[in-house]
Design a protein that fits this description.
Layout (H helix, E strand, L loop, with lengths): L2 H4 L6 E3 L8 H9 L4 E3 L3 E2 H6 L6 H5 L9 E6 L3 H14 L4 E6 L4 H4 L11 H13 L5 E8 L7 H10 L4 E8 L10 H10 L4 E4 L5 H11 L3 E4 L9 H9 L9 H18 L2 H15 L6 H10 L3 H15 L4
Helix pairs in contact: 5-7, 7-8, 8-9, 10-11, 12-13, 12-15, 14-15
The structure holds flavin mononucleotide (FMN).
Flavin mononucleotide binds next to loops.
Length: 328
């Protein structure tokens, strides 16, 4: 794998793009725990280019902290023209390692306009889109896809071949179909079929949640990298546990006080990167993830969801900590 993409690692660990989640704050926390490369949330190619400069939300999504590791910008869209223009803009910004093309999002508001995983149903257009991003020059391009639209139309092998022939640097495959959304199990054996079909690197994605599943996914797919999404929610340490697992070591899960410490730091970074109200609203789900599975957390979680400010949240966290303190 090209040095730029792998960040110099033999088996790079990617933080998978997650809309509403993978802003610079979350990326930073995951990178500190061992994620090698991250991707922005998906950004509309046309929006990135055309939205008014003064309040261009898309530019905000593409914000990168100067101390971050290599960052890919994920674009979605169904028009090769806008993809090309957006790729040029991202390249000109000079702060990004590459462009990732979203061909895997199953959300109807994305597929309805022919973007995301709808592109897997139109291989010709998908090829033109990859071509446009590559032809824009400047940055390496990757494609993130699913196995196919549904069980009868699993064409990840074909799409990966198209990506390779259009000049993509690597592909990431989530081992589910669009129709499956997030149900069932990711099928790593089918990712292996893609891996065998192309000579560009293939990154495996889906249900990798710790050292053991990472080893299993690697054994099943033989992939060149692993991408982790949901397992990192409330648990950025998953990357260090995976890295340890790949080296045949076991690493203990974080303690409650480590989790709460991470939650507080996450909140602090949120508060310096947004206005107070937005930070509070956005942090709610993260707080819930940080205390997931902690006995007695349910009532605290409910109170956090309605907390009026961060002081109230902190009181809830302290209460949880005090209650559980003896058991740490
Ligand atoms: C809340 C959420 C938001 C997501 N947003 C994106 C996105 O913007 N672009 C994308 O390609 N995939 C997106 N995904 C899919 C993930 O990148 C990943 O492919 C999927 O969650 C499977 O990996 P996992 O089992 O490790 O979570 C999203 C997933 C979740 C749960």
């Amino acid at each position: 794998m090209n040095e730029l993409w792998s960040n110099g690692r033999d088996m790079p660990l990617f933080l998978a793009p997650m809309a509403g989640i993978t802003d610079w704050v979350f990326r930073l926390l995951c990178e500190e725990q061992g994620a090698d490369i991250a991707t922005t949330e998906m950004i509309s190619a046309q929006g990135l280019v055309t939205a008014k400069k003064a309040n261009n939300a898309y530019r905000l999504l593409a914000r990168r902290a100067p101390f971050e590791k290599p960052l890919l910008v994920q674009l979605f869209g169904a028009d090769p023209y806008w993809i090309g223009e957006a790729a040029r803009a991202v390249s000109a910004a000079g702060r990004f390692a590459g462009i990732d093309l979203n061909m895997g999002c199953p959300a109807r508001k994305v597929t309805g306009s022919g973007s995301g995983s709808a592109l897997m149903r139109d291989e010709r257009l998908a090829g033109r889109i990859i071509h446009a991003a590559v032809a824009a020059g400047g940055l390496p391009v990757s494609v993130k896809m699913r196995l196919g639209w549904d069980e009868e139309h699993e064409n990840a092998v074909t799409l990966a071949r198209i990506a390779e022939s259009e000049g993509a640097s690597f592909v990431t495959v989530h081992g589910r179909t669009t129709v499956q959304q997030y149900s069932g199990q990711a099928d790593w054996e089918k990712i292996a079929l893609v891996r065998r079909a192309v000579s560009i690197p293939v990154v495996a994605n889906g249900d990798i949640a710790g050292g053991e599943s990472a080893r299993e996914a690697l054994r099943a797919t033989g992939c060149a990298g692993l991408a982790v999404g949901r397992a990192a929610l409330g648990d950025p340490w998953v990357f260090s546990r995976i890295r340890a697992g790949l080296q045949g070591q076991e690493m203990a899960a974080p303690t409650l006080s480590e989790r709460l410490q991470m939650a507080r730091r996450h909140a602090y970074l949120m508060r310096i990167s947004r206005d107070e109200r937005t930070a509070l609203l956005e942090m709610r789900k993260f707080f819930a993830w940080y205390i997931k599975g902690v006995p007695g957390a349910a009532s605290v979680r409910a109170r956090i969801t309605t907390a009026a400010d961060f002081e109230e949240v902190d009181a809830c966290l302290r209460e949880l900590e005090d209650r559980r303190g003896d058991e740490q």
